Each structure stands twice: as structure tokens, then as C-alpha cells.
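Researcher: Last one for today. Full complex below.
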Amino acid sequence: MNTLTLQQDGAVWRLRLGGDWSLAQIGQIDRELNALPGSMLGTLICDWSRAERPGMAPVWLLLARLSALGAGESPTAGLQVRHEGGPPPTVAMLRKLMRDQRAAHAAPSTAPPASPGALGELGRWVVQEGAHASAAVGFFGRIAAVIGAMFSRPRALRIPSMARHIYEAGITAIPIVSLIAFLISVVVSYLGAEQLRKFGADIFVVDLVTIGVLREMGVLLTAIVVAGRSGSAFAAEIGVMQLNDEVDALRALGLNPVELLVVPRILALVIALPLLTVIADAMGLAGGALLSLIELRIPLVQFTVRMHEALGPTTFWAGLVKAPAFAVLIGMVGAYRGMQVRESARELGRLTTVAVVQSIFLVILADALFAVLFQKLDF
Amino acid sequence: MSDPSAKPVVRVHGLVSRFGTQVVHNGLDLEVRSNEIFGVVGGSGSGKSVLLRTMLGLRRPQGGSVELYGRDIHGLSPRERLDLVQSCGVTFQSGALISSLNVAQNIQLPLREYHPLPETALEKIAQLNLALVGLPPDAAGKFPAQLSGGMTKRAALARALSLEPKLLFLDEPTSGLDPISAAAFDELLLYLHSELKLTVVMITHDLDSLFRTCTRVGVIVEGRMISDTLAGILQNPHPWIHDYFHGPRAHAAQQGAHG
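Model: Here's the assembly. Have a good evening.
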């Protein structure tokens, strides 16, 4: 069913509008409007007598199309338009609306800003990154200031808030951290056993598990799990508070959001992460012992004796000492990204993702630096 | 102005809403006729927003029925429900514009979903809706976070109008606006009401707006609704209603409306 039929009679064009002219048919109407010839001159009569239920948007598209074809109000316009056949009241209303809009906002400057070119882009990038870096340093400084102030003002240490975060980031993470440490340790000792058995050196699986879990795997796995769980939670919680103006409300009440929101979270992680690491270490050793028993027939007593021989004086501490450092990284990145959230739900999602990715990256980077450092120190 | 015998567009009968043990509506009746602007008034916590959410079908009531255009909204097939939803426009109190889309994209969102159209046509229709609610064309590219309170309310109205509904639900459309913007919004509403033959259900605390725009008013008291014309409700002896419409602020608003 055609919604438009055009007839020419000398300099008079007759546009019959027929059928359903409601919003439901707008796709069809738009196509037929765009198919109208651009060469009409003279008078155009729009015949509304057969149009049913005309909707606003279709009428608006018709008027916009006619105006693009050169229809005008002034007598000098190339195409004079008349509406006949009982046009709906919307036609008059929308014509007035279009006129008013044109008059009030004549020729809006739509020229896009000049492209800055490659050098300009580079400059903009440098300035942006510089601003980001200085903001991050500033954030670190504010945290340091709050922690410094705690020594003179113990109330700045928010114990209830910290307790809640220790519970959420630490206690509730115990099951998943235990499970992951146990399973990964089983997998690693299985792979080690496969190789070492070829040399008849089965017993060295114990050394592999002990040193591997205590020095590296326990703390690293824990940090990665906590970064995924708590780093994202910090960013999302603080981010939603930003969106709701809660952070600004705290500032307006004379309270320091860094002191109330950021520092308790970071300190909670600094306490919880080493404790979780100890649990992960224990579960990792248990996993190794279980696999040694089943796969290599090393009894638990022998495993324990061999473990003590493999343990250096610093093996356990070399892993554990990294935990607080990782905690600071995860907590700071999560809170910092949360504080950066502005304006929209999409920003919240993006910055939460950034928080997790960045904190995992920083944890692994820091772990590598620790490895080099411990090597040099012979720790 | 409205014909009393006309079939009601919105009919709520015996509505019961409960949250745990707290009863919000207890046998609430409401009828809104075609081409009315119906104002819903009530104290804080009297369940105005709950009523709105129930009428929209976002909340299933504990008792009673809600009919829009004579059809019970809870007895519809998904297809019928979709048609019904498309024939109602809604604005929420805070605007509820999608924050990751700009104003034009917010307006085009339902159109894009239901009417596949080329971009150029969508742009023109967005401009139509902006013009209808009195926003400048360059508002199209702005994001919700960049808008002032008044612009947010107007943009939300533009989105509500984009599917050309005949029935409009407004939740406190003038709250948080300065008196000039609020008055302009009233005029806009009256203009749209007369040009588009809309039926409007409006929750409001703004007495000026109520006196200026509403043809009838419903007051929620004690879980029920008392509805009447403005003149009638002003004579109502119920103490809360009397206090509401005869307090110091109400007098100023009435004088403003009639003076």
C-alpha cells in the first residue's frame, strides 16, 4: 500500500497522502518521501483526504522533506505548498513549530572543530597523561597525609569501618582462596612429579611444592583473587557514591572522603591479605602433601620431614612480606578508580574493569621486582 | 471540559498495596477520563509513586485491578502488553535518562527498537521531540550529566513523547525546578495537552502547578483516594485535605492561579 502518490498537472503537483499515516508506518513513509523527485517547481498540493490517523513524526518528516525540496513560506520560494482535504491539526502545529525552531536557532554552527593533526594529538595525550600522573601522586599524598594524621588524632583510624572491610575482603574470601590454592598446588605438584619421576627424584616434589607455594604461589594467587573480589568492590562502591553525590556530601560536611572511604579499605586489606596468604600457604602445602601421598606414595611423615629440610629460614617470610605491599596496591588502585567515576553508569563499569586489570598487573609487576630484589639480597 | 460519561482511560479498582505489614493502599479507587489532566496528591509515604508504578504494571498489587483503556494490565499476553506499554509515556522523578546515551539517543531509543528507520529520519524525529518540549536543537548531543534540572525534565518528557502516546504519566515533573522553569513546564504541559489531546496523570506536590494545569485532583488519604474537581476538593471537609489546600502556601498558589 502506497502512502504517497504524486501527480503532475502543468506547474501544479498533487501529492495524495493515503493509507495509514501513523507512527507504525513511518519506515515506509520515510522511504517514499525520500523517493520524491527533487525537481518540483510551482505549486504542490498535499491532499490529506485519504490519510488515516496521521501521527506527529510522519507529518514532521513530510514537512522536513518538503522544506528540503525547496518549499518555503515566502512567495519567492520555488515550491508553494498548500494543504487540502482537511489536514489534521498537527500539520498547522508542526509547521509553526518548525518555523519557530528555525527562527530561534537559525544556522547553528555545525562546523566540526579543526582536526589537531598528529602532533596535536601527541601533545594532548602528553598533557592528559601528565594530569593523570599528577592526580595519582596527589591521591597517594592524601592517603599518606591521613595516615600521618592518625598518629596525632587516633579517631582518624575508623575501626568499625575497617572491621567491616576486613570481614568482607578477608573472612568471606577464605573459601575461594583456600580452594584455589589447594587446586593449583595439586596441579603444580602433579606436573612436577611427572618430570621428577623420570630421574627417580620423586622426593624433590616436596621441595618444589614447599618453596613454590610459600615463596610465590600462595601470596600471588591470594592477591589476584582479592584484586578480583575486593578491588572491583572498592571501585564500584566508591563509584556509586560518587554518582549519588555522597562523596561531595561528605566533603560539604567537612569530612574527608579519603579518611572515611579510602584509608579504612586499604588498611583492612593490609591486615586481611597477609592472613589470607597464610591460609593459602597452608592449603597449598596440604594439596601438595595429598598429591604426594596418592601419586608418589610419599607418606605424610616423610613429607613433613623433607619439607623442614627444604625450608630455608626466610622461605615463608619471603612470601608473606609481599602481602602488605600487594594489599596497598590493590586497595589504592580500586579506591582511586572509584573516586574517578563521574557522570554515567558506563564510566562506573569501565573504571571498575580498569581497577581490576590494573591492580592484577601491578601485583604481578611488583612480584617480579620483589623476585629481583630478594635475589640481590639473597633473602 | 471532560464528559463524565466518557469511558475512563485509567481505572483502578479496590487497589491494595502492602509492604510486609505496612499497608499503603487499602481499597483505592481511581478513574481518569480521556483528555483530563489528573493530579495525584498525598502526604509523603502515602503511596503516590507506588500507585504510579502499579498503574504502569511495574509492580503487581496485593489486591484490586488496574485497567488502562478498559483492559486489565495483568491479564494481557506479552504482545498486548507491549502494545499497551508503547501507548503510554512515562517520566520519572529524577528523569531516569540513560546516562551513557546522549539526549537524542535517549529519545530515539524506543523508536530504534520498534520502528527501524535510517539515521537521518531518526535525527529529524529527535529534533521534533526536542522542539515539542522546547529544548534547543543543540541539546541533542548533550549527555544527561551535562543537563540542568529543568532540561533533564524536558528531555525525559521528550523521550516519553517519542512513541506518540495518548496517555502520559508524570512523576513530580516540576519538583526541583525554579519557579520560572516550573511555570514554563506547566505551560508546556497545557500546550501539549491541547495540541496532542493527551490524557495526563501527574503526581505533584507543586500547588501552583496543580492549580494551573489540573482538571481534576485525587488525594490519597488513609490508603484510599478522594477525587474531585479542584473546586470540589477545596470544599472537602476532610482535615488533611483541608490543611493541604488551605495552608499558607496553598492560599498564595490559589491567588496566583486566579489573580
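The longest helix of chain B spans residues 179-196. The CA atoms of residues 153 and 173 of chain B lie 7 Å apart.
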